[in-house]
């Protein structure tokens, strides 16, 4: 496997560094969109990335400009727009068209960013939304996607969950916004359950990619 660091300018006057994991002749690309304070090096991304490798997928791990600058800005529409604009410019320089299938794997703030970028790029993207936020609901309802959230997530409660239609929804009892429980061992069991769902989703999408050949 070839691992590359790709450097792109951002609105924060620093370069963002994307990490690309490439296998020869991969038909599918998984793009990882971090949360506001949840990087792609943390467990939810680390283990789903390993699953992607098992299926022979390429992976592109993103970083936002404010993260590169080590800033903690206010989370608002202006911030989201700046991030999406940066990513749109970056993606226009990447050779994405060579893939038969692209999967956006996103968490929290990243779920909204992934949905907006999908709109801008006008690509046929599949989505896995981990701990989405309210702004992501319209994008969830537009796609046959996998959504994972917890009953104790304060930013995506039963009110938000009731607005979802058509998606494959996994709601983990007692899990917080990090999809963790207070009990460490039970948190590991939760992680296994999430990976099983992602594994099934990847298997289905892998079959779709083969059908396109």
TrEMBL record:
<dbReference type="InterPro" id="IPR029058">
    <property type="entry name" value="AB_hydrolase_fold"/>
</dbReference>
<dbReference type="InterPro" id="IPR017018">
    <property type="entry name" value="UCP033634"/>
</dbReference>
<protein>
    <recommendedName>
        <fullName>Alpha/beta hydrolase</fullName>
    </recommendedName>
</protein>
């Amino acid at each position: 496997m070839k691992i590359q660091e790709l450097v792109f300018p951002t609105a924060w006057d620093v370069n963002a560094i994307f990490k690309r994991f490439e296998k020869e002749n991969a038909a599918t690309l998984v793009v990882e969109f971090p949360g506001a304070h949840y990087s792609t090096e943390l467990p939810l991304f680390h283990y789903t990335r390993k699953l992607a490798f098992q299926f022979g997928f390429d992976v592109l791990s993103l970083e936002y400009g404010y993260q590169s600058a080590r800033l903690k800005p206010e989370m608002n529409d202006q911030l989201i727009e700046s991030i999406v604009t940066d990513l749109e410019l970056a993606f226009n320089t990447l050779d994405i068209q060579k893939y038969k299938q692209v999967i956006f794997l996103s968490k929290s703030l990243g779920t909204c960013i992934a949905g907006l970028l999908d709109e801008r790029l006008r690509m046929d993207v599949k989505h896995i939304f981990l701990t989405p936020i309210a702004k992501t609901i319209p994008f969830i309802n537009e796609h046959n996607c996998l959504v994972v959230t917890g009953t104790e997530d304060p930013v995506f409660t039963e009110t938000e969950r009731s607005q979802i239609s058509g998606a494959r929804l996994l709601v983990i009892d007692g899990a917080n916004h990090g999809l963790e429980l207070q009990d460490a061992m039970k948190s590991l069991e939760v992680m296994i359950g999430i990976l099983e769902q992602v594994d099934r989703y990847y298997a289905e999408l892998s079959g779709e990619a083969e059908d396109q050949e």
